[in-house]
What does this fold into?
Amino acid sequence: MKRLLPWLAAAAVLSLSAASAKTAFPAYPSEWWAPLGAQERVLLLSAADLLGHPVRDRRNRTVGAIAYLATDARTGDISFALVGSGDRLVPVPWALIEEREADGALRLASDGDGLRRAPAVTEARLGELTRTALLIQVYDHYRVPSAQRRLQAKSAEVPLLLVGRSAITTLPLSTARGAEVVKADGRSLGAVERMMIDPALGRVAFVLVGFGGFVGLGEDWLPVPFSALRWHPGRAFFTLNLDPTRLTAMPTFAKEEPAMLVSVSDLRALYNRYSVPPYWRRG
It folds into this structure.
């Protein structure tokens, strides 16, 4: 594989200034999917970089800090942030997070009093978050009807990728093997070590797969569009939908802090390499 992806290296130089900027998020990400193509650059963040950051309500009160970030393993949509600590973790739908403050805090488009009455889980019961019935209660509590309707059309369980401080794991935990990626020939490629998200759209732009070592201990990163991965329910791993012989031509880069500003044209080029539509296009 090619060792360096030039646009990622250049983007890393911009990461510090970009990460400190105040960023407004739309209330409904779908409204931004079409206009995104006209933007020159997009701020992408590692999902793990949001952990530990405070969450403030519309009255500027700190209501907790982000302990986990959960995404739908099938679609790459950010489902919710878990706010709180081990004995009480409150799932907050990503649609309620309207902006990121200059100090890294996330602003809710709601009153923090609602979090105290919201459905919650404990660290030991994280697996319950995959239950559609519980998630519908969560979205109903926050009055997010569009998300509720999507959940009602899905199965009894919603597989999740849970980004924590130490690793990215899969839920339900009873089938967790870590977020492993397997090549089309059945051989292991590596593990998802970073999830680069577009916070404004509430979607995973691409993942960084560690390879060149043991699973989860890869020496390099391979950027892979989320839509190029196929989730296997019950077995808790992804298959990369790409001819293994084409992997040698895919750019990689050495590990470094991945917060970045990336041009839309470069993102298109990455998606074109994998022959999948860009993440800002639904379907």
